[in-house]
Specification:
The protein is an alpha/beta fold. The chain has one domain (20-130): Rossmann fold (3-Layer(aba) Sandwich). The chain is built from four helices and five strands; from the N terminus they run αβαββαβαβ. The protein has a five-stranded mixed β-sheet with strand order 2-3-1-4-5, sandwiched between helices. The relative contact order is 0.19. This is ADP-ribosylation factor-like protein 15. Mg(2+) binds at residues 34, 51.
Length: 143
């Protein structure tokens, strides 16, 4: 009996690996991409700086791991986004719902460009209207 108890407790082996999915996270600078990913990873939101280039975070969920490649959103970086699309299985597009009309138009153009890109056009897209807590935030219908 003790042997059976030991085997039942200790010999099951490691849990099965969780599936991993590769996502790309894009949006204009200041839209909140880094804060979103830091929050999903339970990291501190203090001292967050804009991403220049790209960063990769593994976001753990109970049933899966999302490997999210966050691409910087500055004007001089956006033209290189497409170089990082290969292998993506989904897209997170973050926009600042409280941004100026000009920035919202720029975000709209970038979103349309991403939706039409051959490596992304068949993938699931999550469009996140961030900064809903700001007084100038637009509703989902307005966005």
């Amino acid at each position: 009996l003790p042997w059976q108890c030991f085997r039942a407790l200790c010999c099951k082996g490691p849990p099965p690996p969780r599936p991993e999915y590769d996502l790309v996270c894009i949006g204009l600078s200041g839209s909140g991409k880094t804060s979103l990913l830091s929050q999903l990873c339970s990291e501190s939101l203090e001292n967050i700086v804009s991403t220049t280039g790209f960063s990769i975070k593994a976001v753990p969920f109970q049933n899966a791991i999302l490997n999210v490649k966050e691409l910087g959103g500055a004007d001089n970086i956006r033209k290189y986004w497409s170089r990082y699309y290969q292998g993506s299985q989904g897209v997170i597009f973050v926009l600042d719902s409280a941004s100026s009309e000009d920035d919202l138009e720029t975000a709209r153009n970038e979103l349309h460009s991403a939706l039409q890109h051959p490596q992304l056009c068949t993938l699931p897209f999550l469009i996140l209207a961030n900064h809903q807590d700001k007084p100038a935030a637009r509703s989902v219908q307005e966005v």
